[in-house]
Each structure stands twice: as structure tokens, then as C-alpha cells.
Amino acid sequence: LKSKHHLTDAQIQAMRDGGLTYPQMAMASRLSEKSGKTVDDILKMRNDENMGWGKIAKELGISPKEIGQSVAALRHEIHMDRKIAKAERQETRRAEKAAKKAERMGKKNH
Q1: How far is it, in rounded angstroms, from Cα 29 to Cα 101?
Q2: What is the rounded CA–CA span in Å between residue 27 and residue 23?
Q3: What would the 3-class secondary structure string for the chain be?
Q4: How many CB atoms are closer than 10 A to CB 20?
Q5: d(Cα 70, Cα 33) in Å, to the nearest integer?
Q6: pLDDT per residue over 56-93, tens digit each?
Q7: Do 40 and 53 meet the contact criterion of CB atoms below 8 Å apart?
Q8: For helices 39-47 and 22-35, what crossing angle results, to 10°?
Q9: Torsion over CA: 33, 34, 35, 40 (sign)
Q10: Please, which contacts does 9-15 make with residues 24 or more away whose CB atoms are closer than 8 Å?
């Protein structure tokens, strides 16, 4: 989220403190990128003016489809990150198991 959407740690923390989910952060960021407005401007529209994401998009002349795509891309990225992390954990467990087996075999041979 940080690198893909060019958000600072402070922006992410402020959005989290404001109760935004990661998909909502992606929407705010995408709207900011496409409109030239700041993320803070987008959040003001959302919070101060009680506008929905679709209405904000339309107000800025952006297709609501754009924000849907940003959420879908984020979900895909999260899914892939989880798959990679799971594969890494499995590989670590396999390596540990193989090391223990080799250790047991080494002790048997002595």
C-alpha cells in the first residue's frame, strides 16, 4: 500500500486512526492520484461532507470503476503476499524437519 500508492507512514497511520480499512486507503489514494487532489482533500470530502466513495469519484470526474480496480488490485496483492508468506513458512518447516532428520541419522551412525 505504501509503495504502490506513494503514501507516507504518517498518512497511513492517520487513515488507520480515522478508522479506514486498507481497501478504503487504496480508494482514497487512487482518487488522489487521478484527481490531483491531496489524500487529505479526499478524506475531507469523505468525512466532513459525508460523501460516499462513488460520489467523491463522480464529483472529481473519475469513473467509480477506477476505485473498484484499485481495491481489486490491493486484494490481489494481499492474497499473493499471503501465498508467498505461506510458502516461505512451509519451506522453513521442511528445512527444519530435514535438519532434525539428518541430526538423528548422524547420531544413529555413531
Answers
A1: 50
A2: 6
A3: CCCCCCCCHHHHHHHHHCCCCHHHHHHHHHHHHHHCCCHHHHHHHHHCCCCCHHHHHHHCCCCHHHHHHHHHHHHHHHHHHHHHHHHHHHHHHHHHHHHHHHHHHHHHCC
A4: 18
A5: 11
A6: 999 999 988 877 777 777 777 777 878 898 999 999 99
A7: no
A8: 120
A9: negative
A10: 11/39, 15/39, 15/43
Largest CA distance in the chain: 77
Q: With a threshold of 0.70, does the pTM exceed it?
A: no
Grid coordinates in use for 99?
Answer: 535438519
Q: Flag whether pLDDT at 109 surpasses 80.
A: no
Q: Is 41 exposed, middle or buried (0-12, 13-18, 19+ CB in 10 A)?
A: middle
* Arithmetic mean of pLDDT over the chain: 85
Q: Per-residue pLDDT for 1 more than 80?
A: no
Phi (first) and psi of residue 38, to 5 degrees: -80, 160
Q: Which residues of 45-58 are buried (b: 16+ CB within 10 A; e: fewer)?
A: bbeeeebebeebbe
